[in-house]
Design brief:
The protein is built from eleven helices and 19 strands. The chain has a five-stranded mixed beta sheet. Helix 1 crosses helix 4, helix 1 runs parallel beside helix 8 and helix 2 crosses helix 4. It starts with a helix and ends with a strand. Strand 1 and strand 2 form a beta hairpin. With 519 residues, the protein is α+β, with helices and mostly antiparallel strands. About 1% of the residues have low confidence. The radius of gyration is 29 Å and the shape is globular. The chain binds the ligand Nc1nc2c(c(=O)[nH]1)N[C@H]1C(S)=C(S)[C@@H](COP(=O)(O)O)O[C@H]1N2 and molybdenum atom. Molybdenum atom binds next to loops.
């Protein structure tokens, strides 16, 4: 082989290879990150989806005619080919015209991030996988091309094929293989959850046999900055131990009801949906919610009473607990009376008018008014074992949390929002108060060391939901200390004693210093 063709190989083929290896590694890690963060944030699936949305219908028809049900695969392969060509060009440019290769690769990452944010239901995190992909690709490209020295053909020193080049080939090869590997792992998992997500979106839940409470207009005070009385699914807090959201095809879901019962049985998705479903509104709270925190939300749920499920199994008289388990290994211990008394303890399939979002337990979760989530609200639930507290313990109990977790009486100041400037004059203090299944009868507010004043309470949807409150305030310039406390429907006043969230929920008053400026 002549010197000049050897040289051309170094100056064209190797930079192209560097580009391809860098982009493949970036995309692979990006796909893997999408698996962890949100399947809908997959950079490749995102760009593919955007292209599908943008494509004129004749192009879609042509693709389907040409590739049939493999049209999506053809699209992904097509995107892959374009990506590889661009990657090779970027590698070449990075050697010849630095930093244009890194600029192109970074721009691809930015494009992927923007597309993912526009298409995802959770834009707050959706940009991360593409950002990881772009950053990894850019850094790898910089690193690899540093080992290739561009030299004009005229002054080429063709003997330079030493250890640097071998190291380059080795490292590029490693990057390529690692990228392909992670892309496969990420891509296969993504395909799985995209499929479950598609099943979920195609689902039509039956109408409730028992309609939930009408939400009185007076339940919503409509004060800017105050939490809405019904929390939209997109802003509902999410707490779980699942690094990867379980993907459960409802057709394959079963609930095993077993343990200390006279009759064990399995319940399928179709059987569950055929039962008369009931609608209810229940506020779900996390035991880890600090005083003033926002790990709490209120939704309209559709589900079937767990008491009727248990009645069919006929629990033994000495059973006092139900250990619910999820697909991903989480478990919760719920006192059996909370599941068999007249409260709306349900196997939920719907949340605010749609099937449960994947991260909120699709296809089936538990919701039990009056208990913190960690002892009651098992998502992706697959088993109910009737047992006793002295025979079994749940996930968080084994990690130092209380085996029982009734929700504590709490109230929170939402308005004025922390950090907002308040102008002297007519203003309002407002917030939320709750003690699910007991109810709230009043909220009192203290400004500086003044008397406790009665806040106006919005209409409660029910004792199982939180309630909004507000207090008009003639604010005077200066710093003011504001605190609130709730009174429960059974006459208790929220305690001022400060308790941490461990082991069974925080107590204390929510206090805030509000700076009021001259009008
Ligand atoms: N499978 C499973 N279910 C779970 C959990 C979990 O980690 N895994 N966390 C629980 C806790 S601690 C809470 S507070 C609620 C939160 O439900 P959400 O994420 O829908 O708001 O889910 C409960 N159900
Ligand atoms: Mo929780």
């Amino acid at each position: 082989m002549g010197a000049s063709s050897e040289n051309r190989r170094i100056s064209t083929v190797l930079p192209g290879f560097a580009g391809v290896a860098s982009v493949v590694l970036g995309v692979g890690l990006g796909e893997l990150a999408a698996r962890v963060i949100a399947p809908s944030a997959s950079p490749v699936a995102g760009i593919g989806g955007a292209l599908i949305d943008l494509a004129p219908s004749w192009a879609k028809d042509a693709a389907i005619a040409l590739f049939g049900t493999a049209d999506k695969i053809a699209l992904v392969v097509g995107i892959g080919i374009v990506l590889l060509v661009v990657a090779a060009i970027a590698g070449w440019l990075q050697v010849r015209r630095p930093p244009w290769g890194i600029v192109i690769v970074s721009a691809l990452g930015v494009l992927g991030a923007v597309v993912a944010m526009m298409r995802s239901v959770s834009p707050v995190t959706a940009w991360i996988p593409a950002a990881i992909a772009g950053t990894v690709a850019a850094v790898t490209l910089w690193f690899l091309t540093r080992m290739l020295h561009p030299r004009p053909a005229a002054s080429a020193d063709e003997s330079d094929a030493g250890p640097d080049r071998r190291r380059f080939l080795l490292l590029s090869g490693v990057a390529l293989v690692a990228g392909v590997g992670t892309a496969l792992v990420g891509g296969i998992r993504t395909a799985g959850s995209v499929a479950v997500d598609a099943i979920r979106r195609a689902l039509k839940l039956p109408a409730p046999a028992v309609a939930g409470p009408a939400i009185p207009a007076s339940a919503e005070l409509d004060i800017p900055g105050l939490a809405p009385v019904i929390t939209p699914n997109s802003s509902f807090y999410r707490i779980d131990t699942a690094i990867i959201v379980p993907e459960i095809d409802p057709a394959r879901w079963t609930l095993r009801v077993h343990g200390m019962v006279e009759e064990e049985f399995f319940l399928s998705w179709d059987e569950l949906l055929a039962l008369p479903l009931e609608e209810s509104v229940t506020t779900l709270a996390c035991v880890s919610n600090p005083v003033g925190g926002d790990l709490i939300g209120n939704a309209r749920w559709l589900g079937y009473p767990i008491r009727d499920i248990l009645a069919r199994a006929r629990p033994l008289a000495d059973a006092d607990m139900v250990l619910s388990r999820s697909r991903d290994g989480f478990s919760a211990s719920t006192p059996i009376e909370a599941l068999t008394d007249d409260r709306n303890a349900i196997l939920a399939v719907g949340m605010n008018g749609e099937p449960l979002p994947l991260q909120h337990g699709f296809p089936v979760r538990m919701v039990v008014p009056g208990l913190y989530g960690y002892v009651s609200a098992t998502k992706w639930v697959t088993s109910l074992e009737v047992t006793r507290f002295d025979r079994a313990s749940a996930y968080w109990t084994d990690r130092g949390w209380s085996e029982r977790g009734p929700v504590k009486l709490q109230s929170r100041i939402d308005v004025p929002r922390a950090g907002t400037a308040v102008i002297a004059g007519d203003t309002v203090i407002a917030g939320m108060a709750w003690q699910q299944h007991v109810g709230v009868s009043g909220v009192e507010v203290q400004i500086d060391e003044g008397p406790w004043q009665q806040a106006d309470l919005a209409t409660a949807i029910s004792a199982d939901t939180w309630v909004q409150w507000s207090l008009p305030w003639q604010a005077t310039p200066g710093d003011h200390r504001v605190r609130c406390r709730a009174i429960s429907a059974d006459g208790q006043t929220q305690t001022s004693t400060v308790a941490p969230v461990v082991p069974d929920g925080a107590t204390g008053w929510n206090e805030r210093t509000i700076r009021v400026t001259e009008a």
